[in-house]
Amino acid sequence: MIALREVTKRFGATAALDAVSLEVPEATTHVLLGSSGSGKSTVLRVILGLTIPDGGEVLVDGTAVDLSTRDRLVARMGYVVQDGGLYPHLTAADNVALAAEAHAWPRDRIAARLHALTELTGLEAAMLGRYPRQLSGGQRQRVGLMRALMLDPPILLLDEPLGALDPIVRVELQEQLGRLVADLKKTVVMVTHDVREAARLGHTITLLTAGRVVQQGPYADLAERPASPFVTQFLTAQAAPAPSPSATD
Amino acid sequence: MHRLALVLPWLLAVASTAAAAPDGVIRVGSKSFTESYILAEIAAQVIEQVGEARAERRVGLGGTGVTQRALESDAIDLYPEYTGTLTRVILKEPSLETIEAIRARLASRDLTMSDSLGFDNTYALAMRDDRAERLGVRTISDLAAHPELRGAFSSGFLEREDGWPGLRRVYGLSLARADVMEHALTYRAVASGEVDLMDVFSTDGQLERLHLRLLEDDRHFFPDYSAVLLARREMTERYPRTWARLREVLEGRLDDRRMARLNAMVDLDGRHVTEAAAEFLAGGTPAAAGFARSGRHAILGEIVALTRDHALLVLISVGVAVVLGLPMGILAARFRRAGQLELSAIAMLQTVPALALLMFMIPLFGIGKGPALVALSLYALLPIARNTYAGLMAIDRTLLEIAWVLRLGELRRLLRIELPLSAITIMAGIKTAAVTTVGTATLAAFIGGGGYGTLIVRGLALDDTATILAGAAPAALMALAFHGLFELLDRWVVPRGLRG
Q: Does one domain contain both B154 and B189?
């Protein structure tokens, strides 16, 4: 379980996070929704321990994330960024295997895990030998996800994981991703600015603006009982045809 | 970059071969003026003629200090020297008078020398003949009556106790002016009448043609500067036939006039040193043409040897600079503030002119390849450290954060992620270092480091453009070759995923 309690982070005069609280129960997906600069990526960073908050508390499985615990806690997390965040000088396979290499896994164990991950993410095995620039956006995204899943961490932190994809591939991957995290029972915190994606994947949603929580709850709550006109405005601005108001099942 | 790490031991292996003592080779040195070149070339041709060992020419080492240190540090085996310099500058015992006495003192330094080659190349004062005639000046004593005269002397002469300061005291002289002037230019100044008096060597090839009169040293102030061959005793014992032949051919065989003529052949007639040497050796034997040919042959062979020399200088110094510069660049990127300090220090080193940096090495490391390598390595450091730093700093922060999330650890992150990602920038720095070092390494010859600069220094001393080009052109080619080589190395070191 992941919990933020009144977390505040300032960069100079601007508050990236202003008393943000949220809870993500085990094996659920929580979506951070908001426009760019709303502070949603900073939430992921404080969970990872990449950014240490000025106030409040971040708990991962009951342990507060700080400089002394973050090395240990981050071992339970997989992290995926927009366009995969792959190392351009390493093949897809080498990118995925990095963490296992650091754990001195034997070669055949790595190979077996790579095989399992290609099946899980739907990446063609032939793509494993390619360099990131030789892959399509969707393939890069899959490789990024495989890398995060390599050591099978219970928590996945996804920062706009599908942000760089064209709409058709995006919808396809959204469905795959939803199935995958449900099957694997991962605890997921995912950042997006796409309302339909949030509706499709999030058990719960936090809508942020300027570092503050505007509303939290399932998509239906936000759509049907908006806390402020901003919520409605945000939800309807993007969605030309109304998205199905149900979370992924 | 882990591949680059594999290249280093190889570079170091190459480096270790440089120190190996050459077998069957006698290394002939010289100072960088015509007479010294000619005598060294004569010695080299005699060595080749005897055939006991190969002659390697390490000529044009500069002044007495550098050449002497080259001999004592086993960088050369023999070179032409003068008794006056031996007693005053090297042994610092001006009271030694006879050849035997000097030789006895040299023995304790594991050195020995030949008897006098026959001529006495002492300092002398010269005036234009017509002017001396008009003023009635024949001896140095006569100068005392002409305090209106203007003198221009080479810098050594003006400062040395056995030069102008002593001369002035002994003869009670004063001149209207006594300036320092580049020797080659002073001839013109005297010929045109701007200067009345100059220092010359008594075997100067230009005296006769420029109508200069040597003033008689009537109080015998100038010490005896008989030419001799100064040699390492070890060499004379190892190659006894060669040493005996050298003494036989050279001792007492060159008088002042003959030496002056050989000097004039090179300085005034534009003949090559090898031809002058061959002409002298042909004096007794009719094999002049053969010698001349072997001389030209030797130049080609010399260029081959110098190429090896030069390439080693570049490879070793760039190799050392990589070994030092990479960690320095990494440290600078890790510790920003200390890093800036460190990079500024290296940059400051770069502002020292290369030649001056080489000269600073002499008191620390002597002369020869060692100090040249130290100076060249220091010089190659900046582009490598700087580019390593720049390459590391330019890496996308997200990629570094992901490395932390993946818990790769410091070392793995450096070797597996950071260095490979900066490989293009780092290799660009190494290429810059290699190409500029090929150029800078030509200066190594000034402190006896060998390489193509040997020909450039010699060409400068002999005012011989062809010889300068014989050194400069291969250096340019080598710069191109190194650039090409490192471009190839790029394919191996720069990860495929980063190449366009």
A: yes
**CA-CA distances (angstroms) from residue B114 to B55, B60, B226, B230?**
18, 21, 11, 7
Strands B150-153 and B197-201 come out as: parallel
Between B317 and B493, residue with greater pLDDT: B317
How do residues B9-34 score in pLDDT, each as one tens digit?
Answer: 444 444 433 333 457 899 999 988 88
CB-based contact (8 Å) between A81 and chain B?
A: yes
Residue B251 located in a structural domain? yes
Strand partners, A15: A10
The answer, for B398 touching chain A at a CB cutoff of 8 Å, is yes
Tell whether B412 and B395 lie within a shared domain. yes
From CA A230, how far away is CA A236, in angstroms rounded? Answer: 10
Give buried/exposed letters for A5-17 (b at 16+ CB in 10 A, else e).
bebbbeeeeebbb
The residue out of B235, B253, B286 marking a domain boundary is: B286
pLDDT digits (tens, 9 = 90+) for B105-121: 999 999 999 999 988 88
Kindly tell me if the per-residue pLDDT of A249 is higher than 80: no
Chain A residue with minimum CA distance to B409 = A102
Cβ–Cβ < 8 Å for B404, B463: no
Residues A82-128: tens digit of each pLDDT: 888 999 999 999 999 999 999 999 999 999 999 999 998 989 999 99
pTM of the predicted model as reported, rounded to 2 decimal places: 0.67
What domains can you pick out in chain A, each with its CATH number? Answer: 2-85+154-238 (3.40.50.300)
pLDDT given at position B98: 87
pLDDT value for B1: 45
- Does B269 map to a domain? yes
Residues of chain A contacting B407 with CB distance shorter than 8 Å:
71, 74-75, 99, 102
Number of domains chain B is built from: 3
Domain with B88 in it: 22-119+225-286
Q: Which of residues 20-79 of A touch B (CB under 8 A)?
A: 48, 50, 71, 74-75, 77, 79
* Dist CA B333 CA B156 (whole Å): 49
